[in-house]
């Protein structure tokens, strides 16, 4: 982290209270933050089929952060590929939608990280005995959302663990989303799929004896709330609010509610760097 970023973050986190005074004037005047979110990634964000109500970790955390800051949330349902442009053009104030804090995104965004994640292989329950270890996927056709970092990460993993060992490369199939990957898996069009490790426990519980997770995540990445580079005041207000939720125990309670205690962070991270 650069010196300036560390200084403003530490100053912000040292505050004894968090409220609307820490927010940019435009947010205080509006009385709300407009948050880009696409509710198609349970348990992070999704809609209750019965009530159409927004649910999930990101929804609960987003509402708790806004309450801590003395404001409200207006959720903007925006396609994942349009989120960054919507932020940089001012259509939304921030992105909170299961977005990975990747180095290539930091040219445009600053992230306040709030959980750890990773890409993970899974297959159908009926074929679980074919895939005892991760190298069993070498030479197989594997589907994953083309909108995510998973295709690039899987290609890299394949090069290091399949091709380097003299095994055939994984055939990566980019899909229209994680739901499309699951549909192709059920149809037998792909042998396996890759999805974020934080979503798979929910998926396995929702559709019992349908899927089987294989091994541990093969990548490690933080997920973060994305802010425009120029919007340091809002970024730092959110970092302070997150620290307050960690201190109060509400942060842990939100993740425990969704069975994701294993994804918790031990403090505040901005752009992947711990704020001391």
Shape: elongated
Structural class given helices, strands, pairing? alpha/beta
Strand arrangement within the widest β-sheet reads: 9-8-10-7-11
pLDDT < 50 stretches: 1-17
SSE string, helices as H and strands as E: HHEEEHEHEEEEHEHEHEEHHEE
Alpha-carbon distance between the termini? 11 Å
* Relative helix content: 25-40%
What does this structure look like?
Helices cover 32% and strands 23% of the residues. It has 276 residues and is an alpha/beta fold. Strand 13 and strand 14 form a beta hairpin. Helix 3 crosses helix 8.
Task: Throw out a few tags for this protein.
9 helices; 23% strand; elongated; 4-stranded antiparallel beta sheet; disordered N terminus; alpha/beta; 5-stranded mixed beta sheet; 276 residues
List the topology elements.
Layout: H1 3-13, H2 25-30, E1 32-37, E2 46-47, E3 54-55, H3 57-68, E4 72-77, H4 83-88, E5 94-95, E6 109-117, E7 119-124, E8 141-145, H5 150-161, E9 171-175, H6 178-187, E10 192-196, H7 200-206, E11 211-213, E12 221-228, H8 232-248, H9 250-257, E13 269-270, E14 273-274
Parallel strand pairs: 1-4, 1-5, 8-9, 8-10
Antiparallel strand pairs: 2-3, 6-12, 6-13, 7-10, 7-11, 13-14
Task: Give a quick precis of the structure.
It is built from 9 helices and 14 strands.
